[in-house]
Every structure is written in C-alpha cells, then in structure tokens.
C-alpha cells in the first residue's frame, strides 16, 4: 500500500512538473562576428512539393556557392507548419541558423524580436543595392520607416486558376472577372458532386490572405493607421461575410472544404472535382498532382469592378518568401555573401523557375520563363494590384485570431448554421479582444 | 534450559533479537545510518538532475507568468517588464474574452476528462475481467487489445484524423453510406461533433493502459476466494462486487489518478486531430495554453495559465489522495474480515 502511494505521489509530481514546464526558455546575448568564416547554416522554407524536392533544387546551388567562395552551407529544409516555432525557439535560445527563410507576412513580427540583421543601406550595398528589388516585394520586409528585417527572395501572388474542360462542359467561355460573375459561374458548375470554387477553411493563413484582399475591396483594413487592431469595421465584417457566404449562401464551395487545411482543395481541383481555386503560384503543384499545363487556365483574381488595380481594386496580397540573417551569426560576412548569391540575377531566374514563383529582382523578371501562362498574370498582379499585409508587430497574432474566427464561421456554414452579419461581427470582436495590443 | 539452547541454535537472528539491551548502544548506530542513508545517497544524483530538468524550467515558467513577455522581449526574456498579477487577473476575468475563453476551455477539459477516464476505466476493467479465465485465443486477444497502447501516438491519431474526414473518411462511410444512420455526412473535425471525435480517440488510446494495469491487479487476487464464494453460492456479479472490485481498490487508486493527469494534460491527441486552432467544442486546456503562448506570442499570459493549471491539478490531486487514502484505510479491516469470513 505504501509503495503504491509513493508511486502515485511520484507520478503526480512528474506530471505536474511536466505541466508547468510547458513554458520554458533561455536568454541569448550578443551580436554577430566572423569567427567561423568557412561555414553557414541555412534554414530553407519548404517551397516545392516536398522537402526532398527542395533539397534537390537547392543543393546544387549551395555546392556552386561553396566552389565560388569556399564557404560550406549546411542546408535544412523546414516544413511550413514548424518554421515559425523553430524561428521563435532559435530567437529565444540564440542557437539558430545563420541565414533563414521567413514568410514575408511575418517580417514585422520577427523584426520586433530584434533577432534579425537590419538591412540598412550599407548592408544593401553589399548585395547590389535596394533598387534591384521590386517595390511591392520590399513593402513586406518590415515596418515602414525602419530598415528592412529581410530581403525578398521569391515573390508570389494570388490568381484564379480554372479547369478548362469543366468550364467548357458548363458552357462557360471566359473566366469570371468580378465576384458576381464568379458566383454565377460557380452556381452553373456546382451540381452532381462537382463544385465551383475550392477553399481551405481550416487553413488560418489562407483565410487571412483571402479576407485581407476582400477587406481592401471594401475599403477596409484590419489595422488602424497607427497599428491598432480594427477587426470589426463595416468593411472588414462585410469582407469576412462575403468570403464565408461563398459556402453559406452562394453554395459554390463544398461544405467539406471547411475542414481543409492541407491543400486538399488543390487535389480536388487536379481531380476535376472543383472548377476554380484562388491560389498563389499553383502551377508546380498541379504538375506534381498529374495535371497537364494545358488543362488549366489562369486569370486575375476577381475584383468588384472587374478591372484589378490599386485600392479597392486590389486582388492579391503580396505573397512571398524573404531571406533573413540572424544578428548573432558567427559568420556575418559569409551570410551576406550568401544572400548576395541567392538574390543574384542568375540564381533568381533559376530558383524562381524551379518553384514557379516570380523573382523579386527586377533584372531577373525579364527572363522569358516568367512570361508564360502560369507566371504572366502573377507578375502583373504583383506589379499593379497586390497589397502587402499590414506590417505591424502583431501580424502573426492577427493571422491566428482572425484566421480562427473565419475557420469557425466556415464550420458554422458547413453544419448548416446561419452566418449573419451579427455572428461575423461577434466572432471578429472576440478575435480583437484576444489581441495583446487592443 | 533445553529450550533456550534449542532456540538459539538456528541462527544469529534470534541472538540479535534476544539481546536488544546490550546491542542498542552507540556501536550499532553507524551501521543503521549507513543502511538508511545509503539509498538516499544513491538517489541524490538522480534527484539533483531531476530538479535541474524539471524544477528549473518550472521556476522560470512561474517567473515568466509575472512578466509581459511578447515578441519584443523573447530574445532575452529577463528584460521583459514586470506586470505583477496582470496576466493572472486577465486569465481569471471571466467576463472578458480571454478569461471567458479560458473558463470555457477549462470546462470542456473537465467534461472531457471525466468522460474519457470513466470510459477508459470501465472498458479496461470489463475487458480485463473477461480475459481473466483461460480460454482458447486469450493470448492473441490480449495482444490485440494492447495494440492502441503500443502504436506511436502520432501515427494512431493521424489515422483517426483521416477516418473522421467529412468527404472521404471511413467513419462517415460506415455511419452514413453503409448503415444510413445519418441523413447527411457529419463533420467530426470541426463544429460540435469534434468533442465526440476527440473522446473516441482518447478512449481508444487510453483504455488498453487501464486494461493492462487492472489485469496485473487481478493476478494478485487468490483463486481460493472465488472458489469459496462460488461454493457459498455467490454469482458472477456478486463475486465481482464483493471480491474483485474491493481487491482492486489500491490499483484503481493509482490508475484513475494517472489517467486523470494524462487526460487532463493531453496535448498530442487534440493537436494532431485539429491543428493549432482547435474547434470551440474540443478546445482542451493544453491546446488553449499552447495557442495563448506560442501561436499568439503572449508567453507571459500562457505561463500564467500554466501556473493556474498547475495549482488546479495540485489541488485536485491532493484532495484525491487525501480522500482515497482515508477511505481505503477505513473500511480495510472490515473488508479483510469479510473476505476472510467467506
């Protein structure tokens, strides 16, 4: 009996200790140096169809870099779901890579930690100057008025991908340019187990991208000019409702999409179950899913007026990947050289071609590879009608809070519960209350 | 005379016993200290390491709960400004959204834990009792029962996540397409049903442990008790009620407590099933705290919630141990007498 009690007490102590250690951390210190000039660690984000594909694309380039400079780059491709947490851990412990990829929407949030090397004009000079980069891409490298925390590496934009055969079968001759047309087109197709549009209702980031663009079209933003959360403005509520209504009211999105978060909407598209998806640079993914290039078409994402542009005609967020350097790297010169190499004209052409993205470097964009069906629309969208997500330190919290609200609204819609302006506003108000800086 | 020599013969044991007065001097103490102290001395390195591994982060976590620890300070958390009890008051202000959400999550977790532990115990005990008597294929069945316990959690739960999918999942296929129990395919991973989905996976994963422990406990009950009871005309139910369950009490005491702590703190199951943002109906507290600290980058608030959780679990466990050890001790004697009577 006594030994059992002792065992119980032991088990309890262990479990309680484990419960309390959920939050731990360490401190880090200091700036960088050049103590280890022959080696670099690089965390690449997962751009291709799999981590293996990325390694195949990147390794030859890293070998090339080693040949040129004598610096060996240790590569680790980090899946998206882990990347932000890994960066946060590296930031707290100070034990991170020298060079890393970040999602460009996180720039301001990560900039606030102070762990990333600021790209002042001196640093920019080392990689050929700020002017080499496209303006819209520079717009998502950190808070306005501060030195960027990162350098653009791959640019992406949203576009409307459609299945040519399904359009032809339904007697549709041209892709929709306005939301009304999209709903009309979707209704024509949505029957017999086929659906008009695909969505990723449980993917928080994707939800954010979509409602951000719609909010722009309603003349709203999710933050005030001085960076305070403003989720319940009329425009923001209308934007979220319009997006969820594609499933709830218009019924052009399959209810099952409410639980999608692993790009299932793309595989539905490739299988011919849905006729349209709003996605960023999907061409490479379609190919790996067995779809031929001539089976799909691509058009600018819809805007109310039908003609994309700035302001209320915004039809995409500036999507993309940035490259950052950890301030405490012990090979700062090498890291800068590596950034210079990766953003050089030649590498930009090569890498962006491999990933189906657009080079944020002006000189590389002229390559004919970026003038194909898959890339022309994206390039034009980026140049004329894309807007960067709010560059505020609370951006990553915003993605979670509002992304979750949209996910819950999709769950309501899928379960046949009514989605009203009030219910949308209520969810968004709750999301805003959870923001640290309300 | 003869008796004393005879009793002294078998060994020194009796000698030691019979001459306590002379032996209990200062001569005996060092040996005793060594005998009692040595195990503790041997435990010391492990204890120190344990403290280092568990206590240090725990203390850091508690310190963090008094700080405003956002992305601005995570690079060196010691520089974060003190906020006093702000994180705690925010967490327990149940009229404001953060506190309201925490309370909701806490209640969901309580309901989930009670149901899950109860079902795990019930199924595990029932299965163990059924498996008690030898029959053909018992070994195989026992092995099969342990499969959920042996599988890696991640692989098992992700398989369930696939089965619960709305469009292609096996669960909807069986319930809707084959049995026709629902008018249309249900959602299991979002909305209200997610609680049921979570419970199913948790029980599936947890009951083999209960089965294993109860089975081990059953081995200690003497067969003669059952035979005697059967002779006296006790039926199966009576035997279970009067012999099996009382004899299993000390085993159950630990089992229920461990299951409670594991279930209450379970992170893997909801995280793999639902991702970082669990549906409201299945918003377990571990995920909630994870989201409050790691996803929204408010580590101070997350730490405060962890500390509150720790206090709650300490309280529950303390009360549980107090109550069960008292009730276990009190009826023990009559119980033993009763079984001895049988």
From TrEMBL, chain B:
Domain of life: Bacteria
InterPro entries per UniProt: ABC_transporter_permease (IPR051393), MetI-like (IPR000515), MetI-like_sf (IPR035906)
SUPFAM superfamilies: MetI-like (SSF161098)
Residue intervals of the ABC transmembrane type-1 domain: 106-320
Subcellular localization, as worded in the UniProt entry: Cell membrane
Tagged with keyword Ion transport: no
A single GO cellular-component term on record: plasma membrane
Its membrane topology: Multi-pass membrane protein
Region (Disordered): 1-30
Main location, first listed in the record: membrane
Entry keywords, A to Z: Cell membrane, Membrane, Transmembrane, Transmembrane helix, Transport
GO biological process: one example: transmembrane transport
Record-annotated membrane-spanning stretches: 37-66, 106-131, 143-163, 195-218, 247-264, 299-323
Family note: Belongs to the binding-protein-dependent transport system permease family.
Protein name (Swiss-Prot/TrEMBL): Sugar ABC transporter permease
Native source organism of the sequence: Streptomyces rubrogriseus
């Amino acid at each position: 009996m006594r030994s059992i009690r002792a065992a119980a007490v032991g088990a309890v102590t262990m479990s309680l200790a484990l419960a309390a250690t959920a939050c731990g951390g360490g401190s880090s210190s200091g700036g960088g140096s050049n103590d280890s000039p022959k080696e670099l660690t690089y965390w690449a984000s997962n751009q291709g169809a799999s981590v293996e594909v990325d390694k195949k694309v990147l390794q030859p380039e890293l070998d090339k870099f080693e040949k040129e400079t004598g610096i060996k780059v240790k590569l680790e491709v980090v899946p998206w779901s882990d990347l932000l947490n890994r960066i946060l851990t590296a930031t707290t412990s100070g034990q991170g890579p020298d060079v890393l990829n970040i999602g460009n929407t996180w720039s301001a949030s990560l900039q606030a930690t102070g762990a990333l090397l600021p790209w002042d004009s001196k640093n920019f000079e080392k990689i050929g100057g700020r002017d080499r980069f496209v303006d819209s891409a520079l717009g998502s490298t950190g808070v306005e008025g501060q030195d960027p925390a990162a350098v653009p590496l791959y640019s992406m934009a949203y576009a409307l991908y459609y299945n040519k055969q399904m359009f032809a079968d339904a007697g549709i001759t041209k892709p929709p340019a306005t939301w009304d047309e999209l709903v009309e087109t979707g209704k024509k197709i949505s029957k017999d187990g086929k659906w008009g549009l695909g969505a990723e209702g449980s993917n928080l980031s994707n939800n954010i991208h979509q409602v951000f663009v719609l909010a722009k079209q309603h003349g709203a933003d999710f933050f005030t000019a001085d960076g305070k959360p403003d989720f319940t403005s009329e425009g923001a509520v209308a934007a979220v409702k319009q997006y969820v209504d594609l499933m709830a009211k218009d019924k052009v999105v399959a209810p099952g999409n409410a639980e999608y978060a692993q790009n299932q909407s793309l595989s539905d598209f490739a299988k011919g179950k849905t006729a349209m998806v709003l996605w960023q640079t999907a061409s490479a993914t379609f190919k790996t899913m067995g779809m031929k290039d001539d089976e799909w078409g691509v058009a600018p994402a819809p805007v109310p007026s039908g003609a994309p542009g700035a302001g209320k005609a915004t039809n995409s967020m500036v999507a993309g990947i940035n490259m950052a350097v950890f301030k405490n790297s012990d090979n700062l010169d090498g890291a800068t050289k590596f950034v210079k190499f990766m953003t050089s004209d030649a590498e930009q052409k090569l890498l962006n071609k491999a990933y189906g993205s657009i080079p944020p470097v002006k000189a590389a964009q002229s390559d004919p590879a970026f003038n194909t069906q898959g890339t022309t629309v994206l390039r034009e969208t980026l140049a004329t009608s894309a807007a960067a997500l709010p560059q505020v330190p609370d951006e990553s919290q915003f993605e979670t809070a509002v992304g979750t609200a949209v996910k819950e609204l999709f769950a309501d819609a899928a379960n046949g519960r009514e989605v009203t302006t009030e219910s949308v506003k209520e969810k968004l108000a709750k999301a805003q209350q959870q923001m640290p800086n309300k | 005379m003869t008796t004393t020599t005879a009793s002294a013969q078998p060994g020194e044991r009796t000698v030691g016993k019979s001459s306590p007065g002379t032996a209990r001097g200062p001569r005996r103490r060092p040996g005793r200290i060594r005998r009692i102290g040595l195990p503790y001395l041997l435990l010391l390195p492990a204890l120190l390491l344990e403290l280092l591994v568990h206590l240090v982060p725990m203390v850091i976590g508690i310190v963090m709960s008094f700080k405003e620890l956002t992305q601005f300070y995570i690079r060196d958390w010691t520089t974060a400004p003190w906020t006093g009890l702000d994180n705690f008051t925010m967490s327990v202000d149940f009229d404001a959204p953060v506190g309201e959400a925490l309370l909701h999550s806490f209640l969901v977790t309580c309901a989930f834990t009670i149901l899950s532990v109860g079902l795990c115990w019930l199924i595990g005990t029932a299965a163990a009792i059924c498996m008690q008597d030898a029959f053909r294929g018992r070994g195989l069945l026992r092995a099969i029962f342990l499969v959920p316990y042996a599988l890696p959690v991640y692989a098992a739960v992700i398989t369930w996540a696939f089965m619960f999918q709305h469009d292609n999942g096996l669960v909807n296929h069986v319930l809707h397409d084959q049995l026709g129990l629902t008018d249309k395919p249900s959602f299991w991973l979002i909305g209200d049903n997610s609680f049921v989905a979570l419970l199913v996976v948790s029980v599936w994963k947890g009951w083999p442990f209960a089965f294993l422990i109860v089975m081990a406990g059953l081995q200690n009950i003497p067969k003669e008790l059952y035979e005697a009871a059967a002779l006296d005309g006790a039926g199966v139910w009576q035997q279970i009620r009067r012999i099996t369950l009382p004899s299993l009490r000390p085993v159950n005491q630990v089992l229920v407590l461990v299951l409670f702590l594991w279930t209450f703190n379970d992170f893997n199951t909801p995280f793999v099933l639902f991702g970082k943002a669990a549906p409201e109906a299945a918003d377990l507290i571990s995920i909630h705290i994870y989201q409050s600290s790691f996803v929204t980058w408010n580590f101070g608030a997350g730490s405060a919630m962890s500390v509150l959780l720790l206090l709650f679990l300490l309280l529950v466990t303390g009360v549980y141990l107090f109550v069960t050890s008292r009730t276990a001790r009190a009826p023990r004697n009559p119980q033993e007498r009763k079984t001895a009577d049988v």
